[in-house]
Amino acid sequence: MGQRLSGGRSCLDVPGRLVRRKLALLFAMLCVWLYMFLYSCAGSCAAAPGLLLLGSGSRAAHAPPALTAAPDPTPPRLSFRAPPATPLGVGKEAAEDAASLEEQSPETSDSPSPISSFFSGSGSKQLPQAIIIGVKKGGTRALLEFLRVHPDVRAVGAEPHFFDRSYDKGLAWYRDLMPRTLEGQITMEKTPSYFVTREAPARISAMSKDTKLIVVVRDPVTRAISDYTQTLSKRPDIPTFEDLTFRNRTTGLIDTSWSAIQIGLYAKHLEHWLLHFPLRQMLFVSGERLIRDPAGELGRVQDFLGLKRIITDKHFYFNKTKGFPCLKKAEGSSKPHCLGKTKGRTHPEIAPEVVRRLRDFYRPFNLKFYQMTGHDFGWN
């Protein structure tokens, strides 16, 4: 009783010390195992931040384009010329300024999901392999939001405007704007003004000749009215749609210097793109069918991008109040998601005679566009 070991500690302390050592070793092993588990699952979780149960479609990985750009010779400007400055011309400039301000403050995407944010350090940043290049007020925001549901698509929410406004900042700056992607995922962005920017085709081709291009087109008359409606919401004091449409109301001469009219000359803009990209690398999405049958159009887009058809009818429902389809579940959310309040604005009443003259004006351009793309969009 009370006998001590040579070390001065009781015999009863030895088992307790061994137990503590074993517990410490077990805790260390548990920490290592937990670290390895989180590291190994980071890729699979980041691949589908919003739809973890959908799985990932297989697709061959894209090699990242080189961070060099060929010198960009500035091609001649469009042949459309603005009329001399008049009170009406001043009104057009105000309308153009308001539209420019709207473009400079693009509608941003939803906040990333907690899982996406947690694994934001996974993967690497790549230059985009696919770009939605146009057109303004055609449905580009809807298409991008729908595509982001796919686990193999990673896209920038805001419009980078690199190839039209910030090209001097360089491709390294542009790539840094992109989200991180894993092997097999596609990096995308959308900037609708690229389609009507003369320098954009050569600049994108210099980045990568293999870039896939998506153009969302819409009846040019409806598109012009929608464009005007957007500008009017920012500048209620601009001239009427009719005043801006005609250079001479008496003769019915259409003013092609107004951007709302000029954007709808799809055939003229497409000519510049076909100098740098083959038609097979371009997909033309119908803005009208994107509303009537979003799953059908998304099926074509997924095929074009080489993705598994994951986005289907089950992802959409039609919102009668807004008049366009919405997602049942957005990326990183379990709640339904419709586009913002800036989408689906009520158009002002336009005189039927003005609409008729615009349709007559656009008809030959539409027919040529149908011939160039091999697709009749039915705008006549």
TrEMBL record:
One of its GO terms (molecular function) is [heparan sulfate]-glucosamine 3-sulfotransferase activity. Its main location: Golgi. InterPro entries: NST/OST, P-loop_NTPase, Sulfotransferase_dom. It is a single-pass type II membrane protein. Residues 128-363 form the Sulfotransferase domain. SUPFAM superfamilies: P-loop containing nucleoside triphosphate hydrolases. It holds the Pfam family Sulfotransfer_1. Its EC number is 2.8.2.-. Disulfide bonds join 326-338. Residues 65-123 are annotated as: Disordered. Residues 109-123 have a biased composition (Low complexity). 3'-phosphoadenylyl sulfate binds at residues 137-141, 218, 226, 343-347. GO terms for cellular component: Golgi membrane. The keyword Glycoprotein applies. Gene3D superfamilies: P-loop containing nucleotide triphosphate hydrolases. Belongs to the sulfotransferase 1 family. This is Sulfotransferase. The gene is HS3ST3B1.
